[in-house]
Amino acid sequence: MPQPNLTQHIEALIFSSVQSISVQEIILALNAVFEEEFIETQVFESLDEIKAKYNDENFALELVYLNNGYQFLTKKDYHETVNQLQLHRSKKKLSQAAMETLAIIAYRQPITKLEIEQIRGVNSDYSVQRLLEKELISIDGKAETPGRPILYSTSTLFMDYFGLNNLNQLPQLKDIAREENTVGENND
């Protein structure tokens, strides 16, 4: 096969990927198609070219490093326009119960359904099932407790959806807790 236009092939891989794609995944795909071994420096050079190309104001997209991989996202100037489309597609919106369940899983993972229900105080079967269907959470094994209940954690789609590189970027509970939410007297 002739020498590929590496940058265009990498651009196609990123464009076609539903989630962020890592440099290692790019290399695996290229090595499987072409009869040569690609290395990270070649990929990073092409990624720099792609990033420079999409930094031009004529493009509504930009290349973003997200969740240990690369993904095309809409530039901030166009967020309001895209948001309008998302509002019309709000059928896929998560319910309050699903958001509560997702928040509990995000902050306490890995966690069992029983632990989720103890925190929420209600049955969470439906919420957990919906989050699994939407691929925002995943099964992370089984607990070493009697009955070996399933453990749940957030998925890579969760990271992409909320624009996180790692879980340390989640807002800290102390940052969002307000004084009116405290119990007891404040003895300064």
Q: What's the domain count?
A: 2
Query: What is the CATH first-level class name of the largest domain?
Result: Mainly Alpha
Largest sheet: 3 strands, antiparallel
* Oligomer state of the chains in this structure: single chain
- CATH architecture heading of the largest domain: Orthogonal Bundle
The CATH superfamily of the largest domain is Winged helix-like DNA-binding domain superfamily/Winged helix DNA-binding domain
Give the helices and strands as they follow along the chain: HHHEEHHEHHEEHH
Strand order of the largest sheet: 3-5-4
Given the helix and strand composition, which structural class is it? Answer: alpha+beta
| pLDDT < 50 stretches | none
Distance between the termini: 75 Å
Within the CATH hierarchy, at the fold level, what is the topology of the largest domain? Arc Repressor Mutant, subunit A
The mean pLDDT is: 87
Keywords: Cell cycle, Cell division, Chromosome partition, Cytoplasm
Protein name: SMC-Scp complex subunit ScpB
GO biological process, one term: chromosome separation
InterPro entries: ScpB_csome_segregation (IPR005234), WH-like_DNA-bd_sf (IPR036388), WH_DNA-bd_sf (IPR036390)
